[in-house]
Amino acid sequence: MREEIAIRAIQHYMYCPHRWGLMEIGQMWAENVYVTKANIIHKRVHEPEHRYSSRGSKVFTSVPVYNDLEKYNLYGVTDCLEFFEDKKGVPINGSEKLYRVDIVEYKPTAPKNGLHREEDVMQVFAQKICVDYTFNCKSDAFIYYADTKKRIPVLFEDLYESYDEKLQGLLAEMREKISKGVIPTIRKGQKCSGCSMKDLCMPKLSAKKSIFEEIREIEKGKV
Ligand code: SF4
User: SS3 for 4?
Assistant: First the structure.
């Protein structure tokens, strides 16, 4: 069975493969104001007292989902799932009633350009792969932006196959790096503003040589 990958790691990898490698392979972590803001929003979403019904739906937060098909082997926890009674839906946990399922992912800020960030869309697609497998349904997906208080649909239907191909490609890349213990080098043109790992990563230095290469050279007495 292939290495399990957490859904949230896909978004980290797409944002900056080096940052993902520092976290996943180097076991490093640092927080900043953006991380704290996101944590607060997610904490509110995931608090049990925020389980409620609205718009005629049953709303559940922090729902664990997975897809253990060989080609994915993914797992994670969704921010929020909404279940709407629908005759064309599916039974949930053996219920007599049928439901359609909506995924709602919470993000602190809306992108400045476009409706969604590419890495957020891929994270939601990975959630859909898991939700559809876990509940045997065909879910719809939305991203809720806290700053604009808008819930924007993420439409996959026509692009399902291309997202699926991209997801499987990303998972293969990530697994290869994990199995070799290789932290990816910094991508050309990587945007670093807002990254909580800047002090650990030192992007200007690391662009020339990774921190691990420096350590290896010091250990070998080359420096
Ligand atoms: S500072 Fe830049 S290069 Fe370094 S981990 Fe963060 S985003 Fe990536």
Answer: coil
The H-assigned helical ranges of the chain are 7-15, 17-24, 33-46, 118-135, 160-180, 198-201, 203-206, 211-219
Give, for ligand 1, the residue of 13, 14, 16 to mutate: max count of ligand atoms closer than 8 Å to Cβ: 16
Distance in angstroms (rounded) separating the CA atoms of residues 187 and 17 = 8
Q: Which two tokens stand for residue 159?
A: 């692009």
**Residues 83/99, Cβ–Cβ less than 8 Å:** yes
Residue 49 in 3-state DSSP?
helix
Ligand 1 pocket residue status of 192, Cβ below 6 Å? yes
**H or E element that contains 53:** strand 53-54
Strand 98-107 versus strand 74-91 pairing type: antiparallel
The pTM is what?
0.84
Q: Which domains does the chain have, with CATH numbers?
A: 5-189 (3.90.320)
Q: Which residue minimizes the CA distance to atom 1 of ligand 1? A: 198
Ligand 1 centroid to Cα of residue 84, in Å, is 41
- Say what the pLDDT of residue 199 is: 84
pLDDT tens track for 112-158:
888 899 999 999 999 999 999 999 999 999 999 999 999 999 999 88
* Residue 38 and residue 27 in contact, taking contact as beta carbons nearer than 8 Å: no
- Which candidate, 65, 60, 85, places its Cα nearest to that of 75? 65
Give the model confidence (pLDDT) of 38-78 as tens digits. Answer: 767 666 666 655 565 667 788 988 899 999 999 999 999 99
User: Would the CB of 18 count as within 6 Å of ligand 1?
Assistant: yes
